């Protein structure tokens, strides 16, 4: 069993840290929210007074923070994770952040002689609670091998995506594709309906024809065909449009730096941006179909 420092105990980090405790690891936590840390203390964690303190004297550090600037703040500086972690400590950042910052922080860790992986997740709060997250990991093979059993206590599928930053790259490329395919699926169901074609009939045809995709068969934005999809639960998330927009914006940032044309990714970001601008981004991302129908 390992000694682990865990930083960032929000909707995702809280249950992930609990699963590490359940697996028998010894966990020291830190969060700016004292309440969040206290809840983990009740579950058996020790509480540190700073991120640096949580990172000192442990074998592994895991962080689950909102965005790149929080990761830079937590890892950098005199009392930061990199300065305070001892020799041989492995750093795992599971936050979803921009590829450039992930690579920059990993390089700072390497300069200090520390191995680091970026390991963003998919699976949402439900997956974090159930310990069934998918991890997409960027970093060298040794660091990946060392991270694997720790990630295995919090997730089910663990992929090595390549070097530093490639976990973030995999995550945003996947979610950009998901955002685009959801909008396409919503447009098709909306048009079908306006042409007098019943949603279930269109689903039966298209899900076995070339229009088939995950957004249709597992998460259909039209109510009816897929009983478990948020469309049948008043578009409650699930995966909120605001979270999809965050990932689409990260993809656009990366695309600009990499000079990769992503016209549909850009359009998807604009459309989810409209949901944000109208205060409707708390609904599930499949609720974009309601915006197309003019009833959001
Ligand atoms: P959250 O806002 O619920 O939690 C973030 C936590 O980090 C908060 O408790 C906050 O107090 C803490 N924090 C912020 N700055 C800090 C600092 N400097 N030091 C210590 N603690 C600090 O967010 P979340 O939903 O848990 O998401 C975390 C990450 O996981 C994000 O990058 C998000 O994009 C990603 N993610 C979330 C989901 C989801 O469904 N919520 C799914 C996949 C990925």
From TrEMBL:
One annotated GO molecular function is: 3-hydroxyisobutyrate dehydrogenase activity
Q: Could you say which EC number(s) this protein's record lists?
A: 1.1.1.31
Q: Which UniProt keywords apply?
A: Branched-chain amino acid catabolism, NAD, Oxidoreductase
Gene Ontology terms: biological process: L-valine catabolic process
Q: Where is the active site?
A: 171
6-phosphogluconate dehydrogenase NADP-binding domain residues: 3-162
Q: SUPFAM superfamilies from the entry? A: 6-phosphogluconate dehydrogenase C-terminal domain-like, NAD(P)-binding Rossmann-fold domains
Carries keyword NAD?
A: yes
Entry-linked Gene3D superfamilies: N-(1-d-carboxylethyl)-l-norvaline Dehydrogenase, domain 2 (1.10.1040.10), NAD(P)-binding Rossmann-like Domain (3.40.50.720)
Q: Where is the 3-hydroxyisobutyrate dehydrogenase-like NAD-binding domain?
A: 165-292
Q: NCBIfam families this protein is in? A: HIBADH
Protein family membership: Belongs to the HIBADH-related family.
Name under which the protein is recorded: 3-hydroxyisobutyrate dehydrogenase
Whose protein is this, by species? Pyruvatibacter mobilis
Q: What is the lineage of its organism?
A: Bacteria, Pseudomonadati, Pseudomonadota, Alphaproteobacteria, Hyphomicrobiales
Gene field: mmsB
């Amino acid at each position: 069993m390992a000694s682990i420092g865990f930083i960032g105990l929000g909707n995702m980090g809280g249950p992930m840290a609990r699963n590490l405790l359940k697996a028998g690891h010894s966990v020291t936590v830190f969060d700016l929210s004292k309440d969040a840390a206290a809840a983990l203390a009740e579950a058996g964690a020790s509480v540190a007074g700073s991120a640096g303190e949580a990172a000192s004297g442990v074998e592994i550090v895991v962080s689950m923070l909102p965005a790149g600037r929080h990761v830079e703040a937590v890892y950098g500086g005199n009392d930061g994770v990199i300065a305070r972690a001892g020799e041989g400590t492995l750093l795992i950042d599971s936050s979803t952040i921009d590829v450039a910052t992930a690579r920059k922080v990993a390089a700072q860790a390497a300069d200090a002689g520390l191995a680091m992986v970026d390991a963003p997740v998919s699976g949402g709060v439900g997956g974090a609670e159930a310990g069934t997250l998918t991890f997409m990991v960027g970093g060298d093979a040794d660091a990946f091998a060392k991270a694997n059993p720790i990630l295995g206590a919090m997730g089910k599928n663990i992929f090595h995506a390549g070097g530093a930053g490639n976990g973030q790259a995999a995550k945003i490329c996947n979610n950009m594709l998901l955002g685009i395919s959801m909008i396409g699926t919503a447009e098709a169901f909306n048009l079908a309906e306006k042409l007098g074609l019943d949603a279930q009939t269109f689903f039966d045809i298209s899900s076995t024809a070339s229009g088939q995709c995950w957004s249709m068969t597992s998460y259909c934005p039209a109510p009816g065909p897929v009983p478990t999809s948020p469309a049948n639960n008043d578009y409650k998330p699930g995966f909120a449009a605001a979270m999809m927009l965050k990932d689409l914006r990260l993809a656009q940032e990366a695309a600009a730096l990499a000079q990769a044309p992503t016209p549909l990714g850009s359009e998807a970001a604009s459309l989810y941006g409209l949901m944000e601008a109208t205060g409707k981004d708390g609904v599930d991302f499949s609720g974009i179909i309601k915006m197309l129908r003019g009833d959001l």
